[in-house]
Amino acid sequence: MIKNYFKIALRNFSKHKLFTLINIIGLSIGISSALVIYLIVHFDFTFNQSFTDGDRIYRIVSNYTFSGQEAHNRGVTGALPEAMKSVSGVAISAPFFTLNQPNVLIPSKSGVPVKFKIQDNVVLADSHYFNLFNYSWRAGSAKTALNEPNQVVLTTDQAKKYFPSLSYNQMLGRTVTYDTLTTTVSGIVEPLKGNNDFTFHDFISHASINSNKALLNEIRPKNWGGTTSASQLFIKLSPNITVAHIEKQLNELLKKNNPPKPSDKGNTRNFTLQPLSDLHFNGIYGTFDTGASRSANKTTLYGLLVIALFLLLLGCINFVNLTTAQATQRAKEIGIRKTMGSSRVQLIIQFLSETFLITLIAVIVSVAMAPVILKLFADFIPEGIKVDILGHPDLIIFLFLLTIMVSLLSGFYPAVLLSGYKPALVLKNQTAANSNKTRNAMLRKSLTVLQFVIAQFFIMATILVSKQIYYALHKDLGFKKDAIIVINSPWKNRTASRNQVFMNKLKAIPQIEMIAVGKDAPSSSSSNSTEATYKDGKKDIKINLEEKYGDENYINVYKIKLLAGRNLRLADTSRGFLINTTCAKIFGFKNPKDAVGKLIDNFNGDTKMEIIGVVADFYHESLHSPIRPLAILTSKERYNNGTFHIALKPQSAGGNDWKKAISAMESAWKEIYPEDDFEYHFFDENIAKFYDAEQHTSTLLTWATGLSVFISCLGLLGLAMYTTNLRTKEIGVRKVLGASVTQIVTLLSTELIILIVLAFALVTPLAWYAMHKWMESFADRTTISWWIFVLSGAGMLLAALCTLSFQTVKAAITNPVKSLRSE
């Protein structure tokens, strides 16, 4: 019986090749999109799920408010790990500290150590870390491997990298030096299995802190005031212990050891527990201070699922529309089958088997297309995602369930409809008299409207996202961003004398217009801030003040406008600074000139600074964030004087000047910093990186738009073919009676065009609301212009007319003799 069903299905496909092809293409696009999106979403949602008692593991994070402004830090103060011994209800407390990309030296037989530059994912940890997370040991013991100072545990991958010719046991006792910290290998572990954020591969014993002055100064294990994101603390709660119970104890510890001062009025600080399950998705705190760390966004992932659902729905709608439209062509077949004794259940199974076969073909095509799609989006799809059906049983289950779901969604209604024809009416050619016909037409029209609602929504969203990105990239941000190169001198080898020599060599390059030395560029993803207080004689105005460091050329390189006062001088270090207009207004100065000469108290804790000038506001982050109070100041500290901001002269006609300048910079770099790689970037490229997420969203929406329009037009073409075939004789009669080609085309197109216009009317308010909600994430945003809706509606209408014209014009110009020959 089943064999017979599939034989009939194949014959039907052969008879209606074009309609079958349209159905397969529509479903393949929807299913392949669903498959790729499933791989992405499943990849992110399975992060950090493999740990024992993961629901009891939390990270302690720090939260602040400064004059009502919130701030967050994924780290904790240096003294908290030791103080955790007094907190009840904690089963395991595991602190660790991420090192800032040390160079690693491995002794060799030649006497010249092998150097591995800038190694990421190196942390200080203790045995509690390995008790908390599930590592498998290949050599050494979790109980003793990190108990003593200057010990290190390596993952197998990193161990083979450092000691390629040794066995794991032979590696024990070997020396590994991290910059100036010399350690001994005490254990080898397997990297964690499954998707997780814990990609560390070098674990130096936490006890090394007390025997290393540099680490002691950096971590400050007795300090309750400062917080660094590099110092993190994970805990595992004892059974039946609540989060509130632990948080209460933590904040009592903080209050006891760092009591609030009168000057802290209006500011707050507290610890909270972040669940392990939230680690991968919380962009407020992020993951770790490592290059491999990455946060996912649940809203984006849910948005991807909606896109997959829409594309899948479009393919299913096509199938339902075309199948119900062809119903009358199979009416006699159904009537004869029923007359011969077929039951309605058998007919439903027959039609569902046809749908299942088409869906199965579409799934096979989709699996073949998926690797190609993954390559197309490789720039912003996380590494590690691939189509591995044999290695991932869950993928087989997903494809099976997807096949069944799509088969039922696409085929159930047409199967019930077709199997419901009455043999007597069918064999008398009276199927048109069946009352179902009107309902069928209404269903097809409703589904067609839904198709074009989805397609037009994608078009509108794509246009708006592109408009906002263009606005962000072309808006006057308050500074010059073109033709500026930023170079960071190496932190480990940075000295004032080397910086000066490098500066002198840069000044000798003829293509360079001006150079400034400082820290971050005016707009940067990293930031520094401090508290500051202005006393106006009546009240104390306390604010959180962003900081930018630069010399006297800093505002000139970036063309930042000086509105009042004077520019920075080297002698202004620890004495005076520039503030922006927003800061001046918060302090109560309506005219920038009034702020010049005023004194600011409690800057960086206890310093008194003078306002020497006021600059125009500029964006120091992306347009997602509002302009905040900001100070520009000079500094003699090495940390704040290692970035070179280089303004290039305009290129000559040949356009080779900048390449020559960069080549000369590299030569100078190699002379001053021979051990470090030369890296540079153009400042405007950094600005564009602020909007990577939006660029990726735009790309995805563009693809979704193209696919949705394509699927919708495929369905429209199928319906147009069905309609013209049904009205062939009517068209012939109208032509004989004098109807023109234009009149025939208009007649055939009007009904479907009305459906598209109706879809436009329905989708416009929905799209406006969705766009408005998305735009709320930007502090400065473009307008939702009326032309976005008009352009998308006109574009969809044009695409529909072009699609319809293939069939309607062909029908309109056909010789009426052919259609009326049998009459």
From the alpha-carbon coordinates, what is the Rg to the nearest angstrom? 34 Å
Helix content: 40-55%
Number of domains: 4
What is the total tally of β strands? Answer: 24
Look at the helices and sheets and give the structural class: alpha+beta
Q: What does the average pLDDT come to?
A: 84
Alpha-carbon distance between the two ends = 41 Å
Low-confidence stretches: 432-437
Content of β-strand:
15-25%
Largest sheet: 13 strands, mixed
Number of helices: 25
Please tell me what the overall shape is.
globular
Oligomer: single chain
Subcellular location: Cell membrane
Membrane topology: Multi-pass membrane protein
InterPro entries: ABC3_permease_C, MacB_PCD, Macrolide_Exporter_MacB
Keywords: Cell membrane, Membrane, Transmembrane, Transmembrane helix
How would you sum up this structure in a few lines?
The chain is built from 25 helices and 24 strands. α1 (2-15) packs across α11 (344-376) and α23 (741-775) runs antiparallel to α24. 47% of the residues lie in helices and 17% in strands.
